[in-house]
Amino acid sequence: MPDDIELTPRTPSNPDAFALSDSSADEDSDDDAFLLPSERNHRPKPRRTFTSSSSNSNRGARWRNLNLPPLLSQIWYITSASAHWAILKLRSAAGDGPKAPMKKRRLLLRWSCKATAFCWLALLALTIFTALFMPSYTRGQYPESWRGLEEAIAKGGGSNPPGYWKSAEMPKEKKNTVGGRGNPGKERIFIAANIVDAGLISGEWGERLLETMDILGEENVFLSIFENDSGQATKDALKGLEERIKKRLPKAGVSIISTTLPLEGVPRTKISKDESVVKRITYLAEVRNRALLPLVGTIPSLSRWNQTGLHSGPSLQLAPNEILPPLPADMGAPALPTTWVEKPEEVKKILFLNDVIFSPREISHLLFSTAGGNYASACAIDFINPVKLYDTFATRDEQGWPLGVPLFPWFTPAGEAREKVSDGKAEVEVKSCWGGAAVFAAGPFVKGDGKEEAVRFRAERESWWEGSECCLIHADLPGAGDENTKDADKKMPHGTYLNPFIRVAYDEDTFAWLPWVRRVERMLAGPQRVAGWFAGMPWGSERRTEKAGEKVKDWVWGDEGWKKGERVAGKGGFCGSRKLLVMKEPRPTEGRPWKGVEVPPVPK
Predict the structure, then answer these.
(1) Element containing residue 350 per DSSP (H, E)
(2) Where is this region: Disordered (predicted)?
(3) Does residue 470 contact residue 394 with C-beta atoms inside 8 Å?
(4) Residue 49 has what pLDDT?
């Protein structure tokens, strides 16, 4: 070793000061002494050097050599490090140095991750709070007036086990339920359906239908199903359903018709001088009226086929823009019922069921608990997925406004229905509804023997105006609010109600989710309102305030197109909108049998 070099021992660091590193000065730069721990973690590791001394190490050791008391030493370190950190941040903000953009990206990513995690945690906390303390329309929230029916069903044995009604043969286990347990008043109920899905008929829909008939009491029920042109699988499924009912519920009345209903059997609507179409709603109204036939005895379209029902009735009447070409000579007429309802005037209610999954217990509440069973009509709510309401075409609030965004609470603030749903009301007054399951007081459908006009499903007659037959039927009910209602009709049950407690779905998975959605759906109210506001809802309803019989100046369609004229307002203007839906001709073997037609522009 050269003589001019003197070795001196390194001064140890103050044991009470912050230990910045366990490594020696020749391994890591002492720049880290002026950085916060978080800054130090993200700093790129410097390249190792093997010099005996450096300006960095001398600078980093300055505060150690001051020999300050422990507390002052810590304060000095924190102050120096904070100042150095602030300088680095200023340099980074100014874009000083190649490392600044990298630090900014890392900082932005770090805060973005934190913000995202916070939002998810807040949403989870809100969901749990809502589910526990703010559910809506759960079974535990049934009105007190519903308890009597609940107790009657429970006393009668509740529900039969799943699969009990699957076979026509009696199961080995003994039946533990009492028929009619959900119909304490023994009211006679007419159930009507138009269904074509063979899988549903043989499966869940058929089983739930039989359970419903058992809850209502087989001796109190008449079932009518009308199906047309749906294929052999549907016919076989309906035949199997009829066999199950006759063996398992022999006292129930049954009329199941599988037949054909040619487009030639309904009026055609002219849309130009040389072109006419079959409106989809006209056809659907005929299909629904055919399901009612065993109860009402006759419908106007029977005259088209020279048929006679249980009794005579009014013949088919055409509007000025409708035509009815002669029938082909070889075309057969649709089949008529072979079983008719005895004493139809004693039937109290008509229940229409779509091809939906439903709870038989809830259907009983829809019939007898809604408004105490005193109404002109009452409806469930149908869902196409766990949160989205399906039936927007037929539903109108009490002021006649269409629905908003089809998420809870479904309506717009334009009317009062939204507030009633938010308040958890069991009976929400509306002008019309359907909801996959709809109940009507039977009186308006069966009154008279043909001498009085009874209510039937219908379509709008105008060429370029459509309203759902399921909406128009409510507008035609006696006591529906029309000022021309007869005094005798005002004494009949009145009021149309949507019952949010009663929910159905179009598949089993969606139906299984509905109880869970009820617990958290209030969280959708805010987004639903904001989305509706941005979309400018409610839409349409240009004839919402019209009164039946009044003359209205409007653009009227004729052979030469639109012209300024006058029309007479009809019932149900609130149901309609400017559109046209027509049946495809010839009828396709696959896919939906109807299509929309573009409406010619209406002059301003």
Answers:
(1) strand 347-353
(2) 1-61
(3) yes
(4) 44
- Is the CB of residue 192 less than 8 Å from the CB of residue 151? no
- Give per-residue pLDDT as tens, 25-63: 344 444 444 444 444 444 444 444 444 444 444 444 444
Per-residue CA distances from 171 to 156, 174, 247, 309, 463 (Å): 19, 8, 12, 39, 55
- On whether the CB atoms of residues 245 and 210 are closer than 8 A, the answer is yes
> Cα torsion for 486, 488, 493, 498, to the nearest 10°?
0
User: Is residue 310 within 8 Å of 340, Cβ to Cβ?
Assistant: yes
Instruction: Report d(CA 391, CA 383) in Å as an integer.
Output: 8
Q: Is residue 542 part of a domain?
A: no
CB 137 within 8 A of CB 501: yes
DSSP structural state of residue 277: E
What is the count of structural domains for the chain? 3
If we measure between CA atoms, which residue out of 13, 113, 119 comes closest to residue 68?
13
40 and 151: one domain?
no
Residues 572, 531 share a domain? no
The answer to whether the predicted template modeling score (pTM) of the entire model surpasses 0.70 is yes
Q: How is residue 232 written in tokens? A: 């052999």
- Within 8 A by CB and 6+ apart from 534, the residues are none
Long-range contacts of 71-80 (CB under 8 A, 24+ apart): 73/14, 73/16, 73/17, 74/17, 74/18, 77/17, 77/18, 77/33, 80/34
pLDDT of res. 15? 42
Residue-wise pLDDT tens digits, 183-208? 999 999 999 999 999 999 999 999 99
- Closest to 399 in 3D by CA, of 538, 577, 554: 538
Q: How far apart are CA 91 and CA 463, in angstroms?
A: 73
At 261-286, the pLDDT tens digits run 999 999 999 999 999 999 999 999 99
Q: What is the DSSP secondary structure assignment for residue 38, as one 8-state letter?
A: H
- Any idea of the CA torsion for 303, 304, 307, 309, to the nearest 10 degrees? -50
Q: How far apart, in Å, are the Cα atoms of 323 and each of 270, 317, 320?
A: 7, 10, 8
Q: For 405-417, b where at least 16 C-beta lie within 10 A, e where not — what string?
A: bbbbbbbbbbbeb
Would 4 be classed as within a structural domain? no
| pLDDT at residue 3 tops 70 | no
User: SS in 3 state form for 491-529?
Assistant: CCCCCEEEEEEEEEECCHHHHHHHHHHHHHHHHHHHHHH
Between 123 and 45, the higher pLDDT residue: 123
Q: What is the pLDDT of residue 118?
A: 87
Neighbours of 63 (CB within 10 A): 19
Distance separating alpha carbons of residues 304 and 313, to the nearest angstrom:
12
Kind plus residue range of the DSSP H or E element containing 552: strand 551-558
Residue 16 lies in a domain: no
- Residue 63 is part of which domain span? 30-96
User: What is the pLDDT at residue 111?
Assistant: 85
Residue at 24 is within a domain: no
